[in-house]
Structure formats: structure tokens, C-alpha cells
Amino acid sequence: EYRAGLERVETWDFYPDMSAASMEEAEFVFERKLLNKKQLRELANLPGVIDSQLRKVLKSDPDGHHISNDRRDELRHITGVDTVANNKRWELWEYWGPLDKDELRVAGVEVDDDPLVEYTGSVLMVGNKVVKASLNPLDSGAIPYSVFNWEADGSSIFGFGVPYLMRQPQKVTNAAWRMMMDNAAVSAGPQIIVNKRAVTPADGDWQINRMKVWQATGDVPVDQAFGVYNINSNQGDLSAIFQMAQQLADTETNLPILLQGEGASGGPGASTATGMQMLMNNSNIVLRSAVKNFDDGITEPTVRRFYDFHMEYTDRPEIK
Predict the structure, then answer these.
(1) Is the pTM of this model over 0.85?
(2) In the chain, what's the furthest Cα-to-Cα distance?
């Protein structure tokens, strides 16, 4: 069935025109897909695929080409799942953008010689083999990719995400937590000083354990054998730094703790249903800019492309 659809593309496999600050300015897009042998053979079922090129790919590298920089290898290493020994995949590159007329003819696409006409479309490549080329199904020539940024960047198509916006509070949070753990470790018990001239361990081990037997040497009074000193615990002060960094992260990201399911209990407005509703309404205000970015980046161009597709290809004349 020839119909329009939606698909999410991983950020790590998305390579747009980096000179553009938005998808409206992008001239081309490359998308990487990793296919196994079964998926590669199924490409032959697509209309317009050059079977001879696909056969060359399978014959030239029958065991598959391992992608050394596959992000999934790094994820497996992080999670400790390093048991995948034969992750053999082919790299399928899907290109969308302007196409040369002579190259289109070589791929079996009929084009016009009018110099005023520029063709846009898609090309599928496996390694250095072109397995399919086709014209853009939309008369508008729109590239079928939409991008959403939490916060737009005037110099990059990728924009800024929540982790980037809270990078400075994150550093403070990490430092405060590390200091809390270090201080908790040294202040958990006393520091003990042993005067070796006063006592000696009966078992020859100077490690202090419970119910340990010590022998007095007689050189120094026994009451001067041990000195006990406690290191101050600064957990309260360090916790205040941690909480301050957490609040700063909420401020810089415009994501209040109320939106994360916490902080609603115990507040001045949480005792009544009306007050709770006011808190929720106020917390949602900060999301309006993100929702506007989603509408501008995803909803509007996607609906427009669906509309153009149906106006051109639908079998229902009444909707036109």
C-alpha cells in the first residue's frame, strides 16, 4: 500500500545539513540505518530497487561489515552487556535532497532536460553501491524530516536540550555529592592514635577490632596509649549546597519540581483542591515555549506534508 507514515529517527543516525539552523534551511539530509542480512535481502521487495547492485553488496561482503563506531556498542559496554560477539551489520545510507539529472538517468529515473527544473528525491546506498534512486513524492520538494528542540539555537539545527541547559548546576550537584560522601566516610568513626611505647597487640596485628587484647609495655602509662579524635560532620552545609544546585537546575531548565511529581505536598497552596489547581496551572506556564517549539518544528510541517500527500495521491476526490 502506497501511503504516508511517521517514523522516529535516532539522533545518532541523523546527519542533516549542518550549515542550516532549521529544517526549512536544510538543503539535504543523510540518515544511517543498520541492517542485518535478512533486512538487506528484503530491500529487493521495494519498488525501484536495483537488484544487480544489491547482489553486488551481498557478494562483495557476504558476512556483513561490522560498524566499529556503532553507538549501541558503547551502550552495551556501559550496561555490562558485552556478550554480543558478532554484531555484523550493513550501513544503509538514505539521502534526501537535490539530485543530478544524469545520475538519476543512470538509476533508471525519467527526468526532464529543462535547466530551470531542479529535482529532489531519495537515494539509498550500501557502502559505495547505489541500490535505489527515486524522485521526491511531493511536488513541493519538501524534505520529509522534522526536528524538535527544547530550546532553539540560532546557529545549529540541533538546538539545546535539558541536559545542556543544566550543565552548570549538574557540576555543582556532582561536586557537592562527592564531598558529602567523602565527609561521611571520614566522619563515620573516630581517628585513633596508638602510642606503641605504651601497648602492643597480643596477636601482633595493629588493626583495632572488638574485644582485642593489648599488652602493656610498662614504658608509658596505659591511660596514654590511645588518643581518640572525631572529624566534624558537615553534611548539613553540604546538603544545602546540593539543594541550592537542584533549585538552580529547575530555574535554568524551566522544569519546576512540581512537574516531576514532587514538591506538591506541604506547600501553602496544596491544602485545597483550588490551590492545587492553581499550582499546576502556574507550573504549566513554563512549558508553553517548549510546546510552541514542538508545534513549529513537528506538528505544522508534518500536517502540511500529509495534506500535500493526500491532495496528490488520494483516491477520494471528495476530500479535495
Answers:
(1) no
(2) 110
